[in-house]
């Protein structure tokens, strides 16, 4: 049976990282996919610098890669050169502007902040480590936790029924096992009370 919790943790971490990338790259008029194309081309050899290779490596459709290449070419981040032996094949190369851009781009700060929160902690499972990464990312970029209701500081049992202290409404058993936008981690609440 697949570990759906592990998959969901990876998916949520990916969503947070992509959200930060979109904000950062939008400031320079690019999308995360454009930077991914440039990063790939900066590391591949001369046999792997074709649009087809980019699509394979990034797991994207040829159409998406083609559109990304057009954007990058218009912005003077890459050039196309026909293959000397097969005119149907095109080789892609970074311009000096693209090389400078990649050198300027720093790793996303929230990842570095999350890493600092995790340093020195030992984890018994991948799931525990990824959960800690997710919590670290959420704290670093001040994102909502969207955790499972029954793990929230506002989840209580009242008169032998589940209840939300925040909304002062009863919760069903189904509600208590689903994610909530208003979720507050128990550890976040204890940290806030200690800092007061």
Structure summary:
With 196 residues, the protein is mainly alpha-helical. The chain contains 9 helices and 5 strands, in the order ααααββαααβββαα.
Describe this entry's structure for a reader.
By secondary structure, this protein is mainly alpha-helical. The chain folds into two domains: 17-104, Arc Repressor Mutant, subunit A (Orthogonal Bundle), CATH 1.10.10; 109-195, no CATH class. 53% of the residues lie in helices and 11% in strands. It is built from nine helices and five strands, in the order ααααββαααβββαα. It has helices at residues 4-26, 32-43, 51-58, 62-74, 96-104, 109-118, 126-140, 173-176, 186-195, and strands spanning 78-82, 90-94, 155-158, 161-164, 169-171. The strands form two sheets. A three-stranded antiparallel sheet has the order 3-4-5. A hairpin with a 4-residue loop joins strand 4 (161-164) and strand 5 (169-171). Helix 1 runs parallel beside helix 7, helix 3 packs across helix 4 and helix 6 (109-118) crosses helix 7. The model is unreliable at 189-196 (pLDDT under 50).
Write the layout of secondary structure elements.
Elements: H1 4-26, H2 32-43, H3 51-58, H4 62-74, E1 78-82, E2 90-94, H5 96-104, H6 109-118, H7 126-140, E3 155-158, E4 161-164, E5 169-171, H8 173-176, H9 186-195
Antiparallel strand pairs: 1-2, 3-4, 4-5
Helix pairs in contact: 1-7, 3-4, 6-7
The CATH topology of the largest domain: Arc Repressor Mutant, subunit A
Distance between the termini: 45 Å
What number is the mean pLDDT?
79
| Global Rg | 23 Å
Q: Percent helix among the residues?
A: 40-55%
